[in-house]
Amino acid sequence: MTATIQWFPGHMAKAIRHIKETSSTIDVIMEVLDARAPKSSQNPVLEEILQKKPRLIILNKADLCDSRALRAWIAYFKTLSTIVLPVNAISGKGSKKIESALVEVFARKNTSRKLIRVTVFGVPNVGKSSLINHLIGKKKTLVGNKPGVTKKQIWHALGEKCLLLDTPGILWPKFESPDIGQKLAALNCIKEQRYDSEEIAYYLCDFLMAHYPRLINQRFKLDEEFTEATNVFEAIGKKHGYFLSGNEIDITRVYNTFIREFRSGKIGRISLEKPPA
Predict the structure, then answer these.
(1) pLDDT digits (tens, 9 = 90+) for 30-83
(2) What is the pTM of this model?
(3) For a disulfide at 65, which of 9, 35, 48, 137, Cβ 3.0-4.6 Å?
(4) 38 lies in the same domain as 151
């Protein structure tokens, strides 16, 4: 069950062209990644266009990821001489350190200019707009729980030293492997019309059985040991009464519930990948 997941609508191509055209005016990149899958949520297009720009890495939704994996990712980015901050854009936890971190990153440019122009970059629904709202203290950006909310580029003042440019969430034309598409779909970075919920539910369940087996039983109040995702879904449906007429399990409801419980962190703190050795 590894169908190809792709999503590259016109506004993303337009945003990439605009970033290329305005890259000379950008001082610092604030790249927002999902802390549960920093590598898969890191857009390679950014590397091609803005590879020489100073960068601040934001690991957003840090409260939803495995704390051990989070520490490993922070250590990994530091080995690359990259300043990295874990934050939670919804609550604002960790965001107070961002302005001073941007100033620190900008200082590496060795320039006397005082106003810092920062582009906030990331895949869809990674939390860029929520983060900017906390930073500027006003709800001037559109916020939604669906990917693709921000469609145009808008500058915002952050204190007296920084200008923030909010950009649309951008994916890239072709994922390097099906695994990346599955992770991004699981993280709600791809519109639901572009993937099969059954595939993503199976992907998540297989991953959790391999790496976090106890969390499934704890969350869904199951008391068996499972080796097959199909059995997990059947048990969840029976345990929680997800039935259609004729006592048939409403398996689509089970799939959607499983995905939703993962995304919200109700299953537990989970990381989908570890940093390179």
Answers:
(1) 999 999 999 999 988 877 777 678 899 999 999 999 999 999 999 999 999 899
(2) 0.88
(3) 35
(4) yes
Residue 73, domain member (yes or no): yes
CA 170 – CA 190 distance, rounded (Å): 10
**139/35 same-domain check:** yes
Q: Are residues 149 and 203 in the same domain?
A: no
Amino acid at 260: R
Q: Domain check: are 37 and 121 in the same one?
A: yes
Q: Which domain holds residue 249?
A: 196-264
Quick one: pLDDT at residue 228?
A: 96
Contact by Cβ (8 Å): 98, 58: yes
